Amino acid sequence: MKLIFGTSLFQLSALVVILYFAFGTLVASASFGITPPYVRNTSLTRNSTYEQQILLVRGDPNMPLNAQIVVDAPEIQDWIEIVEGTTILLPRGEQKVPMTVRIKVPSDADYREYEGKIRIRTQPTNDQVADGVVSISLGAQVDINLNVIDRVIEDFRVRKIDVSDLDAGHKLGWLFFPGKINFTMSLENTGNVNIAPSKVQFRIFDRTGAVLLEETQHTGKLKKIAPYATEDVTAHLPTRLPAGSYMARYAIYNNDEVKQEGELNLSILPYGTLQTAGYGFGGLSIPHKISILLPLFAFIIIVLYAIYYRRKGRKDDTLIN
């Protein structure tokens, strides 16, 4: 059986199969996508900054490409920044390339919902463009959905915790400088204002966990985390326990709410083992602080008193003469 132009049905079928597999391979090698396909936040407030990372994903990164980024959000165009720039290189061999979208809400933003889009299109790099070569340009779209609210949200999530070994405290004269527990927390700020834990507390028991030996809580101010960010925060807690192995029950507070609590092993080494900085004046007990400050203040008062009467004596001598 013959078809038009003398092509047999068998030859035509074979050609269709070849084209199918060739085109299918081309599409598979050129596949492009993003994850997640949105920038979404429903708890923004004025003057807040929010960042979200989006991965640009290719099926077969056998050649370098440029991703051209266009923000299409007329109402909030000035709020949006692509940290890596509006042209992002997708290098050969890199299947996933991050793109960071930064949102900066101005101080006069209306309290309402905002929408927009970010369009992404791939193009060959300059050194890949050649005459007569047909290139496939693929694209994707990021949906933007933001909500600015008139409400402060103070909250965080504890991702992980870690405690380091420490040296025991030591005496210097009549003063006792306690050991310093360094308790590191990876915190995610899930609110819309800067935040830090209000209190970090340790209850330290003997090795079996049966006998409570000491209760202590963090000293100084804890570093605050920006909204929607995840960072490590280290709390410093004094301990007056000698070298040994202990079991500690910790609690991390957000105001009166316990955000996380648990148990961990605490190893206190003999003083001087780690050669790390321990507590200074801030770790001294109140009586020891008073024993240093009281004589110092008395000395300052005596000096000021002497200076005052010396000047007064000179003034009296001047008046007599």
Features:
3 domains, 2 helices, Immunoglobulin-like, alpha+beta, 44% strand, 321 residues, disordered N terminus, single chain
Structure description:
The relative contact order is 0.12. The protein has helices spanning 9-29, 286-320, and strands at residues 32-35, 38-44, 49-58, 65-72, 80-82, 87-90, 96-104, 113-124, 139-148, 156-163, 166-167, 170-172, 175-177, 179-189, 199-205, 212-217, 230-239, 244-254, 257-269. The protein folds into three domains: 31-148, Sandwich (Immunoglobulin-like), CATH 2.60.40.10; 156-284, Immunoglobulins (Immunoglobulin-like), CATH 2.60.40.10; 291-321. It contains two helices and 19 strands. The longest helix is centred in the last third of the chain and has 35 residues, at 286-320. Strands 2-9-8-4-6 form a five-stranded mixed sheet, with no helix packed on it. Strand 18 and strand 19 form a beta hairpin. It is α+β, with helices and mostly antiparallel strands.
